[in-house]
Write a structure and sequence with these properties.
Elements: E1 9-24, E2 30-31, E3 33-45, E4 50-65, E5 71-88, E6 91-107, E7 120-131, E8 136-145, E9 160-173
Antiparallel strand pairs: 1-3, 1-9, 2-4, 3-4, 4-5, 5-6, 6-7, 7-8, 8-9
InterPro entries: Beta-barrel_OMP_2, OMP/PagP_B-barrel
Protein name: Porin family protein
Pfam family, one: OMP_b-brl_2
Length: 174
């Protein structure tokens, strides 16, 4: 299947496109915001077909107002830990948890909303990837937010989560 050896560790970098939005309560007027992610990755081969891939990413997220000029920008440092199963040479299916640390949040006017948001975000990632022998790799992933991103008095039962689709290209240094 894959030509990796057990316990082999490779390091790399990745960058790509985010299509970020919110899911949950009162999201009918919300649409995806185009942004980006960039960071470092490591792949730890457990066997010829299974590996673990921790990542450290800067991810620009948020959402746009449907039919308007409103935009909400939230930036995170995300740490996904992906389990990768190689179903064919170079082709993997991936799943794993993610924890995110909120570093900034503002609207289109530059008004700061960081104090009204939860500083920690939990999510579940699902995706596919393809790694070439040269180290060049490609991935598509969906981050399903599991925790409420809002954290302020008077919020009541209101709950929204991050919802981010990512397409990335990366390179593993051999």
């Amino acid at each position: 299947m894959s030509n990796v050896n057990a316990q082999e560790v490779t390091f790399g970098a990745k960058a790509g496109l985010n299509m970020a939005s919110f899911s949950g309560d009162e999201t009918g007027g919300v649409k995806a915001k185009t942004s980006f992610h960039v960071g470092a990755v490591a792949e730890i081969a457990i066997s010829d077909v299974f590996s673990v891939q921790p990542e450290l990413l800067f991810s620009a997220q948020g959402a746009k107002e449907d039919g308007g000029d409103g935009e909400f920008k939230s930036n995170y440092i995300n740490l996904p830990i992906m389990a990768k199963y190689y179903v064919a040479e170079g082709l993997s299916v991936e799943a794993g948890p993610q924890v995110g640390l909120l570093i900034s949040a503002e609207d289109e006017d530059g008004d700061d909303f960081k104090d009204e948001m939860s500083g920690i975000d939990f999510g579940l990632n699902l995706g596919v990837g393809y790694k070439m022998e040269s180290g060049l790799n490609f991935a598509a992933r969906y981050n399903l937010g599991l925790s409420n991103i809002w954290d302020y008095d008077g919020i009541g039962d209101f709950s929204q989560q991050n919802a981010v689709f990512q397409i990335s290209v990366g390179y593993f240094f051999n």
